[in-house]
Amino acid sequence: MPVTQEDIAQKLNISRRLVGYALSGHPGVNESTRQQIAATALDMGYRPHRVAQALASGHTYQIALCFPCLAGSYYSEIISQFEILTRGTPYHVVITSFDPDDPNTNYKPLTVDGTIFVAPASQMPRLLQPPVVVMQSELRRPLAHGEADIDRIQLNISEASREAMTHLLDQGFERFLYVAPQHMMHSREPRFQVYCETLNHAGLQYALLPLEVPGEQRLRQQAHVALRAYFKERELPQAIFCGNDDVAIAAYRALEELGQRIPDDVAIIGFDDLDEVQYLHPPLTSVHLPVETLCANAWRMLMERLNKPELPPRYEEFAAHLVVRQSSAAPSLIAAE
Asked: Looking at residue 337, what is its pLDDT?
């Protein structure tokens, strides 16, 4: 049978109420007593009943992670980081998603203590549970009404995107292709805008391949099919800038199946710098996103907001950077970087 608070109280010869107070984080419990009760509960295999705990404390001890979709390894890395951050805390992470084209249509509201929203604040569903910390790439527009009143962790990807495009242009490439999920191809998306602006300024034509990826569809599979068809029907680009590393990995496979060499025939740059891309052959050049730092600071902000709801809105910015590997340049160029 499951261990109860009454079992813990009997073992320590204390009241069940004191055990309940200690395990729910009640401020009136002495710290040494709290630690003793927590250690005993752990040794006995106690698992709290979350519904009862929420009713007693007014807290669910659940935090929502809200994404525009779950198709992509970048989101998996964020989930892993928050799983690590919640270890040793009373909180659990609940994963949820929404349709970025119509956030209020399919979003299912959750009963949680707070939310970390991994998308632009303008896309937040109306039923999202506050308090909210937004993790987003930098905005290419003024803040809308109400967006300045939330805590934000902002990722600057424009400079790293510009660095990636300059790296390719410096090698004399003239035929470019940008491949990304369709929702990442709009005028406010920094990597897309930098790609278009840079090549327009250089007077070069460029191609776009938007990917229609349903939320339940594997992104790499969809990208592989689309890229293979594209390469068969059109002249091969000399350089491909991918909206994320999943797309870049799919491009590797499609090119290799057609007998093309990377980077001799086609250079490739990815985005996210997933752990696995340095083990590809050749290793993938990619824009590195400081996921661990972003998640740690978003978590800190949310905990501070839960403890002090009266805090003014906070804003913190972090920057991505380009990591050059063999997929986009000859070894001599990599050494020079």
From this structure: 47
